[in-house]
Amino acid sequence: MNDLYDRHRAVLPDWLSLYYEDPLEITHGEGRYVWDAAGRRYLDFFGGILTTMTAHALPEVTKAVSEQAARIVHSSTLYLNRPMVELAERIAQLSGIPDARVFFTTSGTEANDTALLLATAHRRSNTVLAMRNSYHGRSFSAIGITGNRSWSPSSLSPLQTLYVHGGVRTRGPFAHLDDAGFVAACVEDLRDLLGHTRPPAALIAEPIQGVGGFTSPPDGLYAAFREVLAEHGVLWIADEVQTGWGRTGDHFWGWQAHGRSGPPDIVTFAKGIGNGMSIGGVIARAEIMNCLDAHSISTFGGTQITMAAGLANLDHLLDHDLQGNARRVGGLLIERLRAVAARLPGVREVRGRGLMIGVELVRPGTDEADPRAAAAVLEAARERGLLIGKGGGHATSALRIAPPLSLTVAEAEEGAALLEDALRAAY
């Protein structure tokens, strides 16, 4: 046990989670690799929880941050801010939302908190629909709509939250149905729920559930939900904190897999756009964004230095077609891992899209979650030089794989081989 860990435990909260029995200090990174304090190199398949989107130490972002820091770091939203306006223009154009307005925050939690404020103010309702197995952040309001007991430490909330079926395709009461039947059953459940409550403000949903273990419904579920919601005037909030910016490969935004009924009313984003800098935000139609009847500012949302990083990172993402790379390399990685899983009785499913891949683990010979194995694989992967994440709900254990979107085919093969070895060591 190292001295830094002792100091960490002495001054930081007990509930502040750390990976690994011997916690890891990462000191620097380059590309898809990071190094620890002892100088050991690791292939990074988790990217600071899906945050290092393009690459570690990306030269374009480093240069933009350095040049902006030499001019001015921060002034607050009380003053005009050219980088903030420029990034807002780019994001509004990319969002698919007509007459879009953008508000910047410092995190995905704060973005979702703002989206809830907008939706409840616009609709004059504090009832919110959320998905079972969901996660939306650690603020008081975000915890109140999180459908994952492991990440919800309080039952108190400023909101009345009602949970809807559909976020987990292969478990729950509708798992035995085919995709069309699954969607139909979830839609009928939503219709029934709306008949029992006062009109909600919004439904908030992650297109692919992140902390819940990279689970998702069949394509089109949220489009079908939207048709029902529109009948009642209920807004749709897409939480794109983990799925945005092309990570799923097939789409730039996760909601586009459910786009038949048009874009969401509100989109929240964070993580990847800053490539490690603290950027979050909300995109909404002007009538929704402008519904607040009191003053507001953001001291740290949209600071010049984070906006400079976001602009450089977005340019790199688009100029190098990293969405296409996520689709191509992610597709190869998923197939490679499925071939591995077919030979291991403890792997129930390999799922995901692009470079957002979940590996669900069970006790061999059963359909029961195996959190012990997930922890063991995490440790075994680290021992072999691979960093991955984990997650899941009350009845699931999953490994989470989300490398930077610039991952090469050779690195995907390297990571798959290391993970296969770690899985075999754990089972």
Can you give me a brief rundown of this structure?
This protein has a seven-stranded mixed β-sheet with strand order 4-10-9-8-7-5-6, with helices on both faces. Helix 3 runs antiparallel to helix 10 and helix 4 packs across helix 10. 37% of the residues lie in helices and 17% in strands.
Please tell me about this protein's structure.
- This protein has 427 residues and is an alpha/beta fold.
- 37% of the residues lie in helices and 17% in strands.
- The protein contains 13 helices and 15 strands.
- The protein has helices at 3-11, 47-50, 59-71, 82-95, 108-123, 140-144, 179-194, 221-232, 286-289, 304-319, 322-341, 371-383, 409-426; strands at 26-30, 33-36, 41-44, 100-105, 127-131, 160-164, 202-205, 235-239, 266-269, 280-285, 347-353, 356-361, 386-387, 389-391, 397-401.
- It has a 7-stranded mixed beta sheet with strand order 4-10-9-8-7-5-6, with helices on both faces.
- β7, α8 and β8 (235-239) form a beta-alpha-beta unit.
- The mean pLDDT is 96.
Helix/strand layout:
Layout: H1 3-11, E1 26-30, E2 33-36, E3 41-44, H2 47-50, H3 59-71, H4 82-95, E4 100-105, H5 108-123, E5 127-131, H6 140-144, E6 160-164, H7 179-194, E7 202-205, H8 221-232, E8 235-239, E9 266-269, E10 280-285, H9 286-289, H10 304-319, H11 322-341, E11 347-353, E12 356-361, H12 371-383, E13 386-387, E14 389-391, E15 397-401, H13 409-426
Parallel strand pairs: 3-13, 5-6, 5-7, 7-8, 8-9
Antiparallel strand pairs: 1-2, 2-3, 4-10, 9-10, 11-12, 12-15, 14-15
Helix pairs in contact: 3-10, 4-10, 7-8, 11-13, 12-13
